[in-house]
Specification:
510 residues, mainly alpha, Amino acid/polyamine transporter I, two-stranded antiparallel sheet, globular, disordered N terminus, APC family permease, AA-permease/SLC12A_dom, membrane, transmembrane, transmembrane helix
Amino acid sequence: MTIPKIAPVATSDRGLSEKGLKAGSVGLIGAVVIGISCIAPAYTLTAALGPTVSEVGVHLPAIFLVGFIPMLLVALGYRELNNAMPDAGTSFTWATRAFGPWLGWMGGWGLIAATIIVLSNLAAVAVDFFFLMLAQIFANPSLADLTRVLPLNIATTLVFIAGACWISYRGMETTKAFQYILVAFQLLVLGWFAIAAFAHVANGTAFDATAISADWFNPFAVGSFSAFAAGVSLSIFIFWGWDVTLTMNEETKNPEKTPGRAATVTVVVIMVIYMVVSLATLSFAGIGTTGLGAGNPANQGSIFAVLAGPVMGPFAILMSLAILSSSAASLQSTFVSPARTLLSMGHYRALPKSFGRISPAHKSPGYATVAAAVAAAGFYVITRSLSENALWDTITALGMMICFYYGITALACVWYFRAEAFHGVRNFLCKFLAPLLGGVILLVMFFKTAYDSMDPSYGSGSNIGGLGLVFILGCGVILLGVVLMFFMYKRHPEFFRGEVLSRTSQVYNP
């Protein structure tokens, strides 16, 4: 039996080191496909459209635009950091180099925690639509209710997580091949849905035909700042995932350029998809709280499960298949980020050395991939047992986690490049202004959402001891990270003393 190896920490002239991953296995198109897959547009839209409409009503397009702006600004900062320090640890590595090991460790933990949360959520959605697909295939509606049988639901979810883990364990080439077909299929079905919805509006057969108005794109028309912040937090969730293109930087062709370009292309493509589908949904269903209305609380768990039949007729099963394939594909591709962050943290001794193991056969972070799967499975079992509304609450909590670690990373870009920020227009815009604005916006959203989510009525209304479950999930996971960080300090103080990965900054050379 071959023992998986732990790469030695031998640093390059940038203070970073290779970890044994398979270099050059992903090009620009492959990275964009994996980025889109990780975002999972079919899954994120069906899960987030309803909750976002409940917060901001017809101003959904405006909130999407506002959510897109910080994502684009942060993506520019990420691109600059990747150009200077291509490392699979991304947020962890970059924040450590800019701010030191303590804040760097928390940046890495934020990414890991967010992806663990969404992995469990993706598996849950995949299972829901798996049983819905069976009900549609066999014309037996009772089969869809099997997802409510808790033991069966948990067992099926664990099977989905294990399958996605196995594919990810086999490395980037297997991951890439798996994604091409599934991503193409879900985009085709989303396009079909949008065209069919607009056709119903034009033909007068829509449920609540609503004319598109310029006011829909006005973020200042949202009723309150709390509703605005909640809406932005949810919209940020639906853009999240593009940074997976950067965690693959040690495995891409031209690692200094390709990941950053892939991230920018991914964010723009996703924005176009979301805008078209959201406009089609609002135009067809309106925002009413009854029937097929997008504001109906009964529809908010999965808006497409409700609208696919009325919009697409006998082809509604394609939407079930698209969401199933979207969540399954994203479940698999999402393993890329936490596995490579855990790998990097183990490699640089911020976590136990075992996390730095590379599979000799597949050149993938084998131990870290399995660890991420176990954590996601455990998180799902706990949250599903605590609350039947775990889907809604984890989505909202996820928005908080994303704001947290994106914000830290964006400000790390500003600080790391501070010596050259005011030398040239491009440096000022891409290395200072864009990441500064993006980081500040996201951190403001984080603190505002954290404060609001303390209210037991926030999100699904579930609470523990009078505190909203969204707050407990979001801030509780961050506090858990602090506890683990101090535990790791006791076990591996060399990282926290800066002996393995040192703090530094870019030196300006005119």
